[in-house]
């Protein structure tokens, strides 16, 4: 009798502990995603599974926002049994049905209870039956009157469904239940229809593909309203998961590639880096207020609701009246809804690698060997963005790839990666083909090396050439701001305008040889700087303010650094005291030959940048220059005036000598 009492007490104790452990889960989603597979064989998991079976309607779906782990009393169980035949509130909203199917799959993997498998298959059948003929899904099925009939991307509903169906169609091991071949075929067709629906619902803004709305009309596919505070708009949140789904396709069609690229361009265009969210919490850790505060170079965020025509963010209270800022709506909606999102950051993070893998598929001609790509803002070319054209270039091609850029102002950062060699970037005209951006040191905000991220155009791929372009950094007097950064070997820039302020042109790269011909380069402090061996020929070098033209960091032992030959040095009227250069590193080499120097050049010519050792190790020299600014007798004593014989060594063949001969003539 005593032993029986002890056993009973122990049972009660363990049962109590089990219930306490069960109640520690605050969210149903936490349980579903448990990584401990063996847990799904536990008594606790089996008990929860009984609840999940009870909540599933006979039609196969589940209601949303149910904490399935909470214990049910007998009345609740009877009520749920009575509801089974009704299909009341069955939905895919907020992860419903998809997450319960995942739970049942994890249960069946550990416990071969055929009820679990049957439950999963009923759920799958529910998803297939709920799909519209056009490939979309409503928020509730059977259909519920109101906005619930719209095709819904809201809270990633349709993406979640498609991920389930694809896993089945591809016959992966993600789910432990294996449907029949007939069901697998249905899933394949269903997935393809879903992708087609996504492509057809991508919104065109003034003829240009952008992103998606949270809801689209199930008949017209146009953006649609939902709740009063959820007006038709482009969504910075829902669109992100849609794009990630498209990017995950193994062999994307040209239409899919175009959709992704267009959406990425829209994300870049609409990102917000001037605001940060500040959350005010009470003692219980609950949000009692949200405020958006001004910030400089903040982590990018996107508004969840953006105007269909202007992309301007807007916000609504339950009265459905659009407001321009979050502080204009009441506390209940302001604090109880996610108005901003970081979700597109993941798209932008993955996009470069995806583009390298899939970029060659977007050429209009679909050639295996892409040699000409046209960029035109009016849509008459292969692309409207230069960066998209770069993504379409093959890696390490055997032939030159020409990106022909038609006239227009292209407001974008352009990067030509190390693997995109042999690229020719050719503008229609130097004056009217303009690449511009406005990053600067403070805006980038990545620490002491922020300068190197400020470029408008970055060239990393060897054997690059650019012509007939204007490359501009429009930051103005906001510190370091690179227009063109070239860290490649055998780069030739001809007939280009390079415009900026401080640090306009950065030229570097290991053993890099670079050639600038017939260019106009303007800026102020150190506006031509770096470690490359570079020849500037027949260029106009224009100083905006009194400061320094060059700041070479030539590596020790390098034969030539910066060489200016037959160039003209000009300046704004208020730039009266300009140095030819100063040493960024102590072995700096800079030489001016046959150059015309305006009166803005200081008589002493060169400055040591508070580095006395540079006076012995740097090499600054001139030969046969002209103009008011050429005053050899007044130059600093540690600079040089070359003899004719010495100057004779500064030929293009010697300066730009490389294993590929005469590369600069091509």
From TrEMBL:
InterPro entries: Pectate_lyase, Pectin_lyas_fold, Pectin_lyase_fold/virulence, Pectinesterase_Asp_AS, Pectinesterase_cat, Pectinesterase_Tyr_AS. GO terms for molecular function: lyase activity; pectinesterase activity. The active site is at 526. One of its GO terms (biological process) is cell wall modification. Keywords: Aspartyl esterase, Hydrolase, Lyase. Residues 373-657 form the Pectinesterase catalytic domain. Belongs to the pectinesterase family. This is Pectinesterase. It comes from Flavobacterium fluviale. The lineage of its organism: Bacteria, Pseudomonadati, Bacteroidota, Flavobacteriia, Flavobacteriales.
């Amino acid at each position: 009798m005593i032993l029986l009492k002890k056993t009973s007490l122990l049972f009660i104790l363990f049962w109590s502990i089990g219930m306490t452990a069960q109640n520690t889960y605050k969210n149903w989603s936490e349980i579903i995603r448990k990584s401990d597979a063996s847990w799904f064989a536990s008594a606790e998991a089996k008990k929860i599974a009984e609840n999940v079976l009870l909540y599933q309607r006979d039609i196969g779906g589940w209601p949303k926002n149910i904490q399935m782990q909470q214990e049910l009393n007998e009345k609740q169980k009877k009520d749920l049994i009575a509801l089974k035949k009704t299909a009341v509130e069955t939905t895919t909203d907020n992860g419903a049905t998809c997450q319960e199917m995942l739970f049942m799959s994890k249960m069946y993997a550990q416990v071969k209870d055929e009820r679990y498998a049957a439950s999963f298959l009923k759920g799958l059948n529910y998803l297939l039956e709920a799909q519209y003929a056009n490939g979309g899904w409503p928020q509730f099925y059977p259909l519920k009157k109101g906005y619930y009939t719209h095709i819904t991307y809201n809270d990633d509903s349709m993406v979640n469904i498609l991920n389930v169906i694809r896993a089945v169609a591809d016959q992966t091991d993600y789910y432990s239940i294996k449907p029949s071949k007939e069901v697998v075929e249905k899933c394949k067709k269903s997935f393809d229809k879903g992708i087609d629906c996504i492509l057809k619902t991508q919104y065109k803004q003034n003829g240009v593909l952008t992103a998606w709305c949270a809801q689209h009309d199930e008949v017209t596919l146009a953006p649609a309203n939902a709740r009063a505070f959820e007006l038709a708009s482009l969504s910075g949140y829902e669109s992100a998961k849609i794009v990630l789904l498209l990017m995950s396709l193994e062999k994307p069609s040209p239409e899919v590639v175009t959709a992704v690229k267009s959406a990425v361009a829209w994300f870049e265009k609409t990102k917000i880096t001037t605001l940060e969210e500040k959350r005010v919490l009470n003692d219980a850790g609950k949000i009692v207020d949200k405020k958006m505060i001004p910030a400089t170079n903040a982590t990018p965020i996107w508004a969840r609701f953006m105007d269909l025509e202007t992309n301007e963010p807007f916000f609504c209270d339950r009265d459905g009246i659009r407001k321009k800022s979050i502080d204009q709506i009441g506390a209940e909606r302001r604090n109880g809804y996610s108005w901003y999102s970081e979700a597109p950051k993941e798209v932008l993070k993955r996009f470069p690698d995806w583009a390298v893998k899939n970029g060659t598929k977007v050429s209009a001609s679909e050639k295996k060997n892409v040699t000409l790509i046209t960029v035109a803002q009016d849509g008459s070319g292969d692309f409207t963005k230069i960066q998209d054209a770069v993504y379409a270039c093959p890696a390490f091609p055997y032939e030159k790839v020409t990106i022909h850029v038609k006239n227009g102002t292209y407001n974008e950062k352009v990067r030509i990666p190390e693997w995109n060699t042999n690229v020719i970037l050719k503008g229609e005209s130097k004056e009217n083909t303009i690449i511009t951006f406005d990053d600067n040191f403070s805006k980038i905000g990545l620490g002491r090396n922020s300068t190197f991220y400020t470029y408008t155009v970055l060239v990393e791929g060897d054997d690059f050439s650019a012509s007939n372009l204007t490359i501009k950094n429009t930051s103005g007097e906001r510190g370091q701001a690179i227009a063109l950064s070239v860290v490649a070997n055998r780069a030739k820039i001809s007939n280009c305008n390079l415009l900026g302020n401080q640090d306009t042109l950065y030229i570097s790269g290991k053993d890099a040889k670079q050639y600038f011909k017939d260019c106009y380069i303007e800026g102020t402090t150190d506006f031509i700087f770096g470690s490359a061996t570079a020849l500037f020929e027949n260029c106009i070098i224009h100083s905006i303010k009194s400061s320094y033209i060059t700041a070479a960091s030539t590596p020790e032992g390098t034969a030539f650094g910066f060489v200016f030959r037959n160039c003209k040095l000009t300046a704004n009227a208020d730039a009266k005291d300009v140095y030819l250069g100063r040493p960024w590193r102590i072995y700096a080499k800079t030489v001016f030959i046959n150059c015309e120097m305006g009166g803005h050049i200081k008589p002493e010519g060169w400055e040591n940048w508070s580095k006395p050792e540079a006076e012995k190790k740097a090499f600054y020299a001139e030969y046969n220059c002209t103009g008011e600014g050429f005053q050899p007798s007044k130059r600093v004593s540690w600079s040089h005036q070359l003899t004719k014989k010495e100057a004779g060594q500064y030929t293009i063949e010697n300066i730009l000598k490389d294993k590929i001969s005469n590369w600069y003539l091509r």
